[in-house]
Amino acid sequence: MIKTDILIIGAGPTGLFTVFEAGLLKLKCHLIDALPQPGGQCAELYPKKPIYDIPGFPEVLAGDLVSNLLEQIRPFKPGFTLAERAETIEKQLDGSFVVTTNKGTRHQAPVVAIAGGLGSFEPRKPTIDGIVEFEEKGVDYFVKNPEHYRDKKIIIAGGGDSALDWTIFLADVASQVTLVHRRNEFRGALDSVEKVAELTQRGKVNLLTEAEVTDLFGEQQLQAVRITKNNGDQQTLETDYFIPLFGLSPKLGPIGDWGLEIEKNAIKVDNTLDYQTNIPGIYAIGDVNTYPGKLKLILCGFHEAALMCQSAYQRINPDKKFVLKYTTVGGIQGFDGTTK
Ligand code: FAD
Q1: How many helices (H) and strands (E) does the chain have?
Q2: How many angstroms separate the CA atoms of 59 and 303, rounded?
Q3: Which annotated residues bind FAD (predicted)?
Q4: What are the DSSP calls for 275-292, one per residue?
């Protein structure tokens, strides 16, 4: 059981900044995210896009904003459970909550902050008979650790940036890389398309366009796939892994069944005070919540995180009086443990 003061569901920009605000109040945080890396939409959907409305940054790439947030919270040593989806919540007799993930990891905290954004991103799965039986037995929808594929035969499917980027990266790791795409044109960056073409010419990538994987074969583990061309031609390829990268679709997911008041796929909160939900001790901040006048912007999530942490502090320390201090005022414990 992982125990913490504030359990944050969602490691997007809102969840990450919550660690900082909580840290100033000496509250420990642990984050759960369904994705294998922190950063939410910024990291997953648009890491290379500039953002112009973060106060103090005339322009910052979304990926750099995530790196900066991680650097800012590093001194508070948050815990992470990544690539696991928060599935169930149970209230305990002492008033705390136990949140269990789809992989069975259990977390306990007196306060839960849902910073789930648009929901947990679910991979779009191709419609191939029996694919579910091969999940984690040769079929992977994310590349969590490239080393996993060292000296293995892999088949990637897809035509976007993820499929192209991983084809390029894994060409130097795997023993054989095949990229299968339904069309002749790719949706990804031109630079990546050219790189894949060059790797194909050098024999480092086997590129099959106007084709798709239609059947999977294997006993306990995936052993081969059948690839069908648009003109009907078929071939069977031996492989260790099949990695379909067809993008992600956001869903509020299991949080929708936690007894929270939901309006238009978002969690209703009290915005007059502290962004608490209808269940005391459970807060919802960032894109996942709704209230009159709500704006789905990163800076709104940051503001909500700050107010939510003050309320969480009072909940966890009912007998302590809270006094607001600025981070730069003498007497406050520095983030690296020194007194500034
Ligand atoms: P998210 O970033 O959505 O992160 C939520 C995280 O929670 C996700 O990682 C998800 O996997 C996780 N999660 C959800 N449910 C679960 C669960 N059950 N278990 C585990 N994990 C879960 N905003 C701006 O302010 N300025 C901009 O310029 C801007 N440009 C944008 C451009 C694009 C293309 C897009 C798509 C959005 C843009 N936005 C912009 C909006 C901004 O990205 C969001 O407001 C912001 O990401 C919200 O942050 P968040 O942390 O609340 O949620």
Answers
A1: 6, 23
A2: 20
A3: 14, 33, 41, 46, 86, 121, 287, 328
A4: -B-SSTTEEE-GGGEE-T
**What does the pLDDT look like over 219-259, one tens digit per residue?**
999 999 999 999 999 999 999 999 999 987 767 889 999 99
Cβ of 255 closer than 6 Å to ligand 1, yes or no, is yes
Q: How many CB atoms lie within 10 A of CB 9?
A: 28
- Is ligand 1 within 6 A of the CB of residue 78? no
Question: Which pTM value belongs to this model?
Answer: 0.74
Ligand 1, atom 28, lies closest to the CA of 51
ipTM above 0.90, yes or no: yes
Ligand 1 midpoint to CA 210 (Å)? 33
Nearest Cα residue to atom 29 of ligand 1: 51
pLDDT in tens, 147-165: 999 999 999 999 998 899 8
Q: Is 158 exposed, middle or buried (0-12, 13-18, 19+ CB in 10 A)?
A: buried
Atom of ligand 1 nearest to the CA of 51: 28
Q: Is 116 in the pocket of ligand 1 (CB under 6 A)?
A: yes
In sequence order, the β-bridge partners of residue 266 are: 263
